[in-house]
Amino acid sequence: MGSLKNVALPMLLALSLLHLPFAESLWFINYHIHIVNNLPLGNSPPNQPNLFMHCKSKNKDLGDRPMVKGQDYTWDTKLNFFRTTLFFCNARWVGHKSRRFDAFDGSRDERRCLEYHNSCMWSVRADGFYLSINNATWFKIYPW
């Protein structure tokens, strides 16, 4: 009888947590990550990529993407059960600089990216990487 109690009680607790509003908003929604190339063209032709972005997680490699000015690199993800989902990117500004940055960190972004359509929006600029949670106000998070 004690064995059933040890199994049933945690199961009931876990199932009850799944019905709480915060559980749905954290574990079952799609987060949309956008990275937009807002670098100056410099001497590059407008149709030639001046930014190369390679993003991946522990389990999923999104590949290397050449980006022209104004282009949006986007993907969707969900939080894993432990909220440790992490997508990081290597950015290379042709002829200038390169940098690795965390584009989506579940423990950091689960709440703040819910503000604007479940989106984390990044802008890559000449002085660094900016994040917006409302597509109006931008904050510099990473320098080059």
Describe it:
With 144 residues, the chain is of the alpha+beta class. The strands form two sheets. The chain has a five-stranded mixed sheet with strand order 4-1-7-8-9, with no helix packed on it. The longest helix is centred in the first third of the chain and has 17 residues. The protein starts with a helix and ends with a strand.
SSE arrangement:
Elements: H1 2-18, H2 21-27, E1 31-37, E2 51-56, E3 61-67, E4 72-77, E5 86-93, E6 97-105, H3 106-109, E7 119-125, E8 128-132, E9 139-142
Parallel strand pairs: 1-7
Antiparallel strand pairs: 1-4, 2-3, 2-5, 5-6, 7-8, 8-9
In short:
The protein has three helices and nine strands.
Radius of gyration: 19 Å
Instruction: Kindly name the structural category.
Output: alpha+beta
- What is the H-and-E element order? HHEEEEEEHEEE
Low-confidence stretches: 19-25
| Helix content class | 10-25%
Work out the helix count: 3
Strand order of the main beta sheet, please? 4-1-7-8-9
Largest sheet at a glance? 5 strands, mixed
Question: On the 0-100 scale, what is the average pLDDT?
Answer: 86
The global form is: elongated
